[in-house]
Amino acid sequence: MTRETQIGATVHCDKNFLTILQQNHVNGLEMQTKDGKWFRVDPSTSNFIVMAGESFLAWSNGRVHSPRHQVMVSGNETRYSTAWSSSLRGVIQCPPELVDEQHPLLFKPFEELGLLRFYETEQGFKAESTLKAYCGV
């Protein structure tokens, strides 16, 4: 990290179902691939970035990736972004059609609000995967 680089948002996964992000011309969003490689996301200002949250990961039984991401900004310009997030009310559970011998159940049913409350605890915040620590099978 250079002197001019600042952390805009620390490494995390969104806990909700889906996030839609739009930002100005100042980039800084970085995402981690499934195999652990980081890459910088440099969309145009007319693009939207759509990310699955951990609730979507659980609902899909691990078939939809919820990327770890962070924001690193440098320079003198201000980065502005707007995020819209969707949440589910009630119990989130994987549909039976997505569970079979090749895809055993990964997460117990849970409520998104419970996941968010767990994330606010020391154990939840320090967990490598809040979702696995909260309701992993």
UniProtKB/TrEMBL annotation:
Give the highest taxon in the source lineage.
Answer: Eukaryota
Annotated ranges, domain Fe2OG dioxygenase: 1-87
What keywords would UniProt list here?
Answer: Dioxygenase, Iron, Metal-binding, Oxidoreductase
Among the GO molecular function terms of this UniProt record, one is: dioxygenase activity
The signal peptide stretch is none
Concerning its family, UniProt says: Belongs to the iron/ascorbate-dependent oxidoreductase family.
Q: What is this protein called?
A: Probable inactive 2-oxoglutarate-dependent dioxygenase AOP2
**What organism, scientifically named, is this protein from?**
Rhodamnia argentea
Q: Which residues of the full protein are shown?
A: 177 to 313 of 313
